[in-house]
Every structure is written in structure tokens, then in C-alpha cells.
Design brief:
Layout lengths: L1 H4 L5 E2 L4 E9 L7 H17 L5 E6 L7 E7 L27 H7 L17 E7 L5 H12 L2 E2 L4 H43 L8
Helix pairs in contact: 2-4
Length: 208
């Protein structure tokens, strides 16, 4: 739980952020490594600290496609009652799902591994800012996301800092224990090899 609560991506989003949509290939081939790492490591922390904001993920197997992180931002306090013209957005409307269709409402709040969660159309009082993720490192994706969204990093509390020291120490102990185990195993293998050679030469036999 500590790794979800703390670390890169632990940030509070402003009130005008209405939802987030990620679109990338599940394969690492084709420059989607950064997007996948952001999804695995940073997005869970964003969701933990912003549970009210839908965060949709559309994964597919088309590694030739671009990877995009879309941020939906509210432009007005309340949407207009009637709309005579489509809202302006930085995203091509043809690339978004039809907001008036019955299926788009079903897809709006569900992620998909099989390319079934297209980019939703923005509401009349929303605009979309897109961050291209293809061939971009996850740390740079996070930096661009924070800059564009206005997210505020959540600082570690004193208790968090103590937990971090504790878990870091545990990690060091695990590494030391593993190295000690490997040394013992290597020494045991050498002893057995020596005894086998001694037995072949007519020396002392290996104990059962």
C-alpha cells in the first residue's frame, strides 16, 4: 500500500480535471515502453489520490499506432442547456467516440485490453489536452502530465518518511540475505566438487 500511496505520480488533481484516458499498445515493441510503465507505476498513485476522477485505459495490439494520454478539462462551471455547435477541442472529433450513442455511455467508465475503450467525445463544457507518449520515457510523460494538468505533488508526511526508511532497510536486508545465500550455495558446490575429485583420486569419500 505504501508504494501506491507514495512515489512518482502521488499528486492531487485540480477540480477542473474531469477524466483521464490512456491509449497505447500492450506490447513493448514500437516505443510503448514509457506508456506501459506510466500505466503500471504512476497511474495507480494518481487514482489513489483522486478516486473520484475516471481514469480510462484502452490497450490494444497495434504497436504502429501512437500512444496518447488525454486530459479532459472543464472549461465552464456548468454546461449550457442547449448546444448548437460542437465544442472546440484540440482533438480531432472523428477520433473520439460518439457521445450521443448508447454504447458510448457504457464504454465511458470501463477500460479495455482489447481496444474497446475509444477516446470519449468531450462534453460541451470540456476540452481535451493530449500528451503523446510514443518513444517517451515514463518520467517525461509524468512531467508533461503535471505541467499540463496543474497537478500538485503530495509531499511525504513524517510517518511516510519513517515507513520509507523502514522499507528501504528491508530491501537492503533482502539483497544482503540473497547474496549470502548465493555465497553459501557456491561454497557448498565447491566443497562437493572437491570431494568428488578426491574420491576419484582414492582420497576420502563424501559423507552420505
Amino acid at each position: 500500500m505504501f508504494n501506491v500511496r507514495c512515489g512518482p505520480g502521488a499528486a492531487k488533481l485540480p477540480m477542473n480535471i474531469t477524466k483521464i484516458h490512456m491509449d497505447f499498445c500492450a506490447s513493448l515493441i514500437g516505443g510503448h515502453q514509457g506508456a506501459k510503465k506510466f500505466w503500471r507505476e504512476n497511474l495507480p498513485r494518481l487514482k489513489y489520490h483522486n478516486p473520484q476522477i475516471p481514469m480510462l485505459v484502452n490497450r490494444h495490439d497495434e504497436n504502429s499506432k501512437d500512444s496518447a494520454l488525454s486530459i479532459f478539462m472543464r472549461t465552464t462551471a456548468n454546461p449550457p442547456v442547449t448546444v448548437d455547435a460542437p465544442s472546440s477541442t484540440t482533438v480531432n472529433p472523428s477520433a473520439t467516440a460518439d457521445a450521443s450513442s448508447s454504447t458510448s455511455e457504457d464504454k465511458l467508465f470501463y477500460s479495455s485490453r482489447h481496444n474497446m475503450c475509444p477516446l470519449p467525445s468531450p462534453a460541451p463544457n470540456e476540452r481535451i489536452v493530449q500528451i503523446q507518449m510514443k518513444n517517451v520515457h515514463s518520467t517525461e510523460i509524468l512531467k508533461r502530465f503535471v505541467d499540463e494538468s496543474g497537478a500538485k505533488e503530495i509531499k511525504l508526511t513524517d510517518m511516510d518518511s519513517k515507513e520509507q526508511v523502514y522499507f528501504d532497510e528491508l530491501a537492503k536486508q533482502r539483497v544482503m540475505s540473497l547474496e549470502a545465500f548465493k555465497r553459501r550455495k557456491a561454497n557448498k558446490a565447491k566443497e562437493r566438487a572437491f570431494l568428488r575429485q578426491a574420491r576419484k583420486a582414492g582420497g576420502p569419500k563424501e559423507a552420505a
